[in-house]
Design brief:
Layout: H1 42-58, H2 68-83, E1 87-95, E2 98-107, E3 111-121, H3 131-151, E4 157-164, H4 172-179, H5 183-188, E5 189-195, E6 206-207, H6 212-225, E7 230-231, H7 241-246, E8 251-255, H8 264-270, H9 294-312, E9 323-326, E10 330-332, E11 339-345, E12 356-364, E13 370-375, E14 381-386, E15 395-401, E16 410-418, E17 425-433
Parallel strand pairs: 3-4, 3-5, 5-8, 6-7
Antiparallel strand pairs: 1-2, 2-4, 6-8, 9-17, 10-17, 11-16, 12-15, 12-17, 13-14, 13-16
Bound molecules: tryptophan (TRP), zinc ion and calcium ion.
Tryptophan (TRP) is lined by residues 133, 167, 196-197, 232, 234-235, 238-239, 255, 258.
Length: 435
């Protein structure tokens, strides 16, 4: 599909004329383009928590390894994923004399040699329902997987979601999975995202200090919200990312705090109560649906989806031929200050292409007067024309620019300066075409 939607010129040099790419694509949209991550509905995540609470209540108050509440939890998650079109696998193992279960859910499609995983442990301790630890991560990952299905999302990477058993006994399930993955299969896993406790009642916003790309993805999400984050320090390797990390797989994750105490500095930036632990019900019977901070759960659930989308999508171009154009005239003062025409690129994941077509249409009676630059969103300058061509008229030309080190989204400018007196002109149009 060629997207070359154009609006007629708006008044002024700052007018924006862009291709119709912004925002989340509907489920039926062509899969080649970048799509924005959906907002994960908090109500859906909370419903999963209510269901996990009911399962615990009906099974002696917990969802621990080897207990009926654990198997019921696995069955509950599996049924939702099966109905949503996932290929699910129940992996069994034995620990402390009881059968344990991991649930693996593959989303059909994507590059089988580039697998992005996200996971959470689904077991609780025996003392309670484990709604923050770790219904929260389990529910957010489940709802993100369901959102993938609802969106008909077809990323370039293959997506795999996992719910681990017996984490509370020492990362038993996730260790079992990684140890039993053939080395060829292991090599295909390009990233593992872990979510263990993300709705703590007195929350902090912690990002694992692991793979830089994954870490930055979460930080970028939170920067967009204006919420400060800190590096997770409440025990490195205390959750299911550890076996992946030990196998050399890039990992990352989010955490809202367990039994460490919130400092006054942390309470100042995040709210909540200083001098109290992030989760006073950690590993105890009061870890129920009442033990959740909705704001933290909402933000972190959206962050799960944001990261899944950002790390699995196409890394370069929107549909071939997508045009971002500004046709507003901008007069170029004779022997004067530089002027610019802008276009805003949006809805593209990752960097600009190595063969970005920059269409320049400048009407001028002496092109040898002109210096013309492309300015990337971060301010990087690419010179297109530097006073060559002497007395010839006009610059009507398409330049191919290697813009692959630039993030595609943002405001791009064509900057034109007339450096000699006598002849004058104007920018007629400026456009960027994605190959
Ligand atoms: N389930 C983990 C545990 O009981 C919770 C936890 C504590 C955690 N510290 C962490 C999870 C740091 C991630 C990162 O040990
Ligand atoms: Zn946990
Ligand atoms: Ca001039």
């Amino acid at each position: 599909m060629k997207l070359s939607a154009r609006l007629s010129a708006l008044a002024g040099a700052s007018a924006l004329v862009v291709g119709a790419l912004a925002g989340a694509a509907p489920a039926s949209a062509a899969p080649t383009g970048a799509t924005a991550a959906p907002d994960i509905p908090l109500a859906n995540v909370k419903q999963h928590l209510a269901d996990l609470q009911s399962i615990a209540t009906a099974n002696g108050g917990n969802r621990a390894h080897g207990r009926t509440g654990y198997k019921a939890s696995i069955d509950f998650v599996k049924a939702k994923l099966d109905a949503a079109g996932y290929t699910t696998t129940l992996q069994t193992f034995t620990s402390s004399g009881a059968t344990g279960y991991n649930l693996i859910a593959d989303w059909p499609g994507g590059d089988p040699n580039q697998v992005l995983m996200a996971g959470s442990h689904l077991d609780s301790v025996t003392s309670g329902a484990g709604i923050n630890d770790n219904g929260s991560g389990s529910a957010a990952v489940l709802e993100t997987a369901l959102a993938v299905s609802r969106a008909g999302y077809q990323p370039s990477k293959h997506l795999r979601f996992a719910w681990w058993g017996a984490e509370e006994l020492g990362l038993i399930g996730s260790k079992y999975y990684v140890n039993n993955l053939a080395s060829t299969e292991r090599a295909k896993v390009k990233g593992y995202l872990n979510f263990d406790m993300i709705g703590s009642p007195n929350p902090g916003y912690f990002v694992y200090d692991d793979d830089p790309t994954i870490e930055q993805t979460f930080k970028t999400y939170y920067a967009g919200l204006g919420v400060p984050t800190e590096i997770e320090t409440e025990g490195d390797g205390r959750s299911d990312h550890a076996p992946f990390k030990n196998a050399g797989i890039p990992v990352g994750g989010l955490f809202s705090g367990a039994d460490y105490v919130k400092t006054s500095a942390q309470a100042q930036k995040w709210g909540g109560t200083a001098g109290q632990s992030f989760d006073r019900c950690y590993h105890s019977s009061c870890d129920t649906t009442a033990n959740i901070n909705d704001t933290a759960l909402d933000r972190n659930s959206d962050a799960v989806a944001y990261a899944i989308w950002a790390l699995s999508g196409t890394t370069t171009t929107p549909p071939a031929g997508t045009v971002f154009e500004n046709t507003a005239d901008v007069s170029v003062p004779d022997n004067g200050a530089a002027v610019t025409s802008s276009v805003t690129v949006s809805g593209v994941t990752g960097n600009a292409p190595s063969n970005l077509a920059v269409g320049v249409d400048i009407i001028h009676t002496w092109r040898g007067d002109l210096v013309v630059d492309l300015i990337a969103p971060d301010g990087s300058v690419y010179n297109l024309h530097n006073r060559t061509g002497s007395s010839a008229d006009n610059i009507q030309q398409t330049y191919t620019v290697n813009a692959s080190s630039e993030v595609a989204n943002g405001v791009w400018k064509l900057r034109v300066q007339d450096k000699a007196s006598g002849d004058t002109g104007y920018i007629n149009s400026f456009k960027l075409t994605f190959p």
